[in-house]
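Question (not urgent): is this output format expected?
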Amino acid sequence: MLALLFFAFISGLVTILAPCIWPLLPIVLSSTTAGGKSKPLGITLGIVTSFAFFTLTISYIVKIIPFDPNILRLFAVLVIGFLGLTLIVPKLTQIIEGWVSRFSARHYPVPGYTKIKDQGFRGGLITGLALGVVWSPCAGPILATIATLAATQSVNLGIILVTLVYVIGVGIPLFAFATLGSEFFSKSRVLSPYTGQIQKVFGVIMILTALAIFTNYDKTIQVKLLDLFPSYSNFLFKLESNQSVKQQLNILKGKKEMPKEAPMNKSIIMITPSSSLPNLGPAPEFTGIYKWLNVDKPLTIKGLKGKVVLIDFWTYTCINCIRTLPFVTSWYEKYKDKGFAVIGVHTPEFEFEKNTKNVLGAIKQYKINYPVAQDNDYKTWNAYDNHYWPAKYLIDTNGNIRYTHFGEGDYEETEMHIKTLLKEAGEQVDEATIKLEDQSPRMRMTPETYLGSARREVGTFNLQGKWDVQDEYSSSSKGSVLEINFFADKVFLVITPKNINDRVKVVVDGEVVNVQNAGEDIKDGYVLFKEDHPNNLYNLIDLKGNPSDHLLRLEFETEGTKIFAFTFG
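Got this back:
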């Protein structure tokens, strides 16, 4: 635990160098131009306190008192904007100080006594509390684990301790920065005659920053800064990715040992080489299922004993999953009368994939006739300690996992293992396997690329113009542009249009796509949006079996088109 605390402290300490904190520094600096020596302490305590508190508790608060968490963000924006206004209009500052003085007089017994020095601290504390609500630090493995466990309401004493150590690390350089700023403005003979004008300039900066936060443009700025300075993210992940930290993070997640090595690329295959399948232990029960589809009542692993069962973790926008579905559905149809069952566990990557109507549309599109469980809260995913889409777990008639497979490919071998378990159960099966085209990529290919701020890797694509960058997606404005270099045969993009009239032009290597390279969802160079497009996965590029390097440019002619992730085939 000490190693994890040490690295959490170091990670917090170097956050002052992170591009994602730079947009807040002008506000911190502007807040120190007035208010005395205690104001930097107030700002620092406010930021680290509100950030730690809301990171750890927001999911609990929303569960107890249902409300939109964006209300907190809006309130913080109003506070920051108003504080900026007080720097521009000094009379507002006098009014506020009068309120504070009267409030202080009620709480201090000496007549006429007010703690003037505390007014600077309180003002800084209010500013800091607001900033802590809207600040999203660059997340490495440590902070990502904290956020994930907090979001799933799995906070424990260890998580609280790591968070506290992290914010202490953040607070030390932040306090030093605020203090130096305060000293600089209070003691500089050159600047002292212009203090009033400087405060007004900083007031304008605070208001502009508040507007950027309100429109979410602050996240766009952060993304662009990360693109300009990718070395910070690389340094952070190297710092936090040593074996000791990984082991301690694993313990915080409630696991006794390090997870088994598994492929990072979805197209890499893990198989059991032995022809006599090993016993990998009892299959976990289905847990926390939101809704069962294609079946009259909920299913259980216990109730499925006596059957050979294939658990298929999938999600309907994942191109890797989509390429496996013809094989899975064929196995089900071929062996369902011989004691074989398939359960599709649909665990969403994106919020909109939780929509039952969308999942039903995908089930219809891909002709899925076996039961599908909506695992919207990742409860069954976590019970299986799964990490990948697609992932398959083959279970024997006694309820034991006998084979696992992650990613695409090796379909013939998987089917052979299905038949092995059916034979163990006394079923007669022929030796022939299903012959379908294996569309798994066989060459180097651009990896899946997420377009939201939460999982974006710097330097993978370029946004131009105004964008509303959220955790899961980026939303266009009129005239905004996205560019990405890719190596693939086909390019797919998960899109949620504002309506079917959204206009997105597709350009490759400087020319509008044509019949030679346009995907099936393109018409006259534009994405053809459809109301009955259930999975929101649009095929933009099809090079007809000739994968190569190209520059893709998307020009958005309408506002509000949400883009989530690229996948390549």
